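Project standup — Tuesday

K.O.: blocked on the structure for the chain from last sprint. Re-posting the sequence here as requested.
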Amino acid sequence: MNFKITQLLNAVQIDNLVNSQFEINDVVPNIYTCQNELPSSIMHLLAGGTTTLELPLKLKFNKVDALLLLFNIEGGLQITQNDTTLISDMGTSVIVDLSKEAEFFTTMLPCSFRFYFISGYKPEFLSDMLTTPLSVHLSTQKPSSLTLDQLSRIPEKYELPYAYHIHAKITDILCNFAAIYYGESNQTSVIEQIPDSPSYLAVMSELIHNHSNEPYSLSYFENRLGISRYRLCREYHALYGVSPIQDLNHTRIQNAKKLLLTSSLQIQEISNSVGFDDVTHFIRLFKRETGHTPGQFRQSLISVC
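H.V.: unblocked you, prediction finished:
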């Protein structure tokens, strides 16, 4: 684990009276690593992903050189920094400069959010914006939240060229925040001027990411949404950068990884649990994405532990 990640995780204090064994790794699903040395001139991801908290939780960040970008999907969070308290509810995007102490407390459960810790180059325009946590209320179909959704597809390990793609996505999000902060008091500003994506694509994405164990197919989406599967594939790929089936399989593989790590279920049971009815197909897709079979992946985790 690199120095920056270690600094980040060590900066977190957790208070959970319900479960004293709760650790930061229970909140942070993904650790991101570039296989090459990153230039200081770009922003990059340290850790993040999508998580759901079912129990009351309080997180305190001691000073650490990172930004936190968060999109609240469900429930509520209270964020306190510099004697300023901000309430984040469903549909709110928040950015916090963690170089100053900050506290997070769940106010409504279950609390589900997509979040990313950002390190590296910090644009100068952020300095005035982030004296306190900054929030913007966005629907799930606005460009900033769509970009956050695209960040969720970034692999945990990547090569240097992909780092510039990540930098561009982060820059896009921060610029949307800046457009609102600097003189655009009406939050319809620049964001509202960009046409919404079709609502049916948001429905597809929500089903794929939150109900991926269901027996979905292109025929299912075609019948449910009343739109040609060819059009759905074309528009979904244009918006999210992957086809619906690629996205579905990726989500299922991510869920399978968690089960391999946290359960003693057999490979066949995990395959069925995450949505695959053919274990051979599951193993083939798992190896294609991770470079290992599910059995090899589980064994490597056991060896590390």
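K.O.: great, moving the ticket to review. The chain has twelve helices and eleven strands. The chain has two domains: 3-193, 199-304.
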